[in-house]
Amino acid sequence: MKPNKNEVKVERRGETEVVFTRYFAAPRELVFECHTKPELMKRWLIGPEGMVLETCEQDLRVGGKYLYLYADKNGNKSGVYGIFREVVVPETLANTENYIFDMSTFDPNAPEDPNATFESRTFTTEGDKTLMTHVCRYASPEVCKMMVESGAADGMAECYLELDRLLEKYV
């Protein structure tokens, strides 16, 4: 059986790192734009069931901050925020990631959490496809285990199917 290049592959590296890889049938410049332009991100970056990406703010530069908030029809919100650590258009995007579970305790001006997840995405051209390599380094083996067991790869796979549909409109 031929492997599905659109499948999210997951590889554990050590106790705190996970590498996700996925192919997209589009040029890397377009795949990169879909990961960095809020108007495009809102069209494919789906959240937990019943939630939509309501807020997508970012200052796309090294040291710039970002905030992605999801909301459901009842006004419940959750999201992620962090700081960009590396931005090389259209090949690399690296950032910290902090989770927001309770908006009443969220302070956008608080100092960065030393336990933030570190992520990097590298976009590589392979023929007429783009390979995205997404590395996540978690603060502890426990957090890493929780993220793997929570089905993070399944959630990514659903988002990337939405991204495939969006890319088809531009390719």
Can you describe what's shown?
- The chain has helices at residues 28-36, 38-44, 141-149, 152-170; strands spanning 9-13, 17-24, 52-58, 65-71, 77-88, 92-100, 117-126, 129-137.
- By secondary structure, it is α+β, with helices and mostly antiparallel strands.
- An 8-stranded antiparallel sheet has the order 1-2-8-7-6-5-4-3.
- A hairpin with a 6-residue loop joins strand 3 (52-58) and strand 4.
- Helix 1 (28-36) packs across helix 2 (38-44).
- It is globular, with a radius of gyration of 16 Å.
- The model has no long low-confidence stretch (mean pLDDT 92).
Largest sheet, described in full? Answer: 8 strands, antiparallel
The whole-angstrom Rg is: 16 Å
The SS-based structural class is: alpha+beta
Q: How is the quaternary structure best described? A: single chain
The total strand number stands at 8
Distance between the termini: 27 Å
**Large-scale geometry:** globular
Number of helices in the DSSP assignment? 4
Strand content: 35-45%
| Strand order, largest beta sheet | 1-2-8-7-6-5-4-3
Q: Which blocks of ≥5 consecutive residues have pLDDT under 50?
A: none
Helix content: 25-40%
